Amino acid sequence: MRRFSILFFAVFFSTAVHAASPSDASIEELLNSMHAEKIMDLMLPAIDKSMHQSMAMATEGKTLSAKQQQILDASTAKMMALMKDEMSWDKMHPMYVQIYRESFTQEEIDGLVAFYKSPAGVAYINKMPAVMQKTMGLMQTRMAEMIPKMKAAIQQAVEDVQNSK
């Protein structure tokens, strides 16, 4: 029985050690290796561009008066300022640390740090802004194609509800 207890505790503790939560220092090293702050900063111009395109799509190509355009531009600027503030690294950083701590083991964080410091990882980091920009562009195209279909489906649903009385 004693051997079984020793074996049980050895397995239990080795598993617990093996699946240890990562340290904040290792998460910081990973975020630095990933250039997470820089990537967040690079996303904001893409979001700004997307927001302007969305506003243009919302007006459906109608010509706006100078005053209407000014109001639209001011609204877009306010939303972008809010987004920049809410998605600032200072506000997002603690969330990233928490998510990585809850999602990865120390061993996994160590492996990710090794990857992001490798030539393949460095290439991945360097090419991600272009990948994200291309993705956003293609998504805008898809959204432009999808919005009229969504509007038609919504309109049909409203008509169906009205006709069901």
From TrEMBL:
Residues 90-148 form the DUF2059 domain. InterPro entries: DUF2059. Keywords: Signal. It holds the Pfam family DUF2059. Residues 1-19 form the signal peptide. This is DUF2059 domain-containing protein. It comes from Collimonas pratensis.
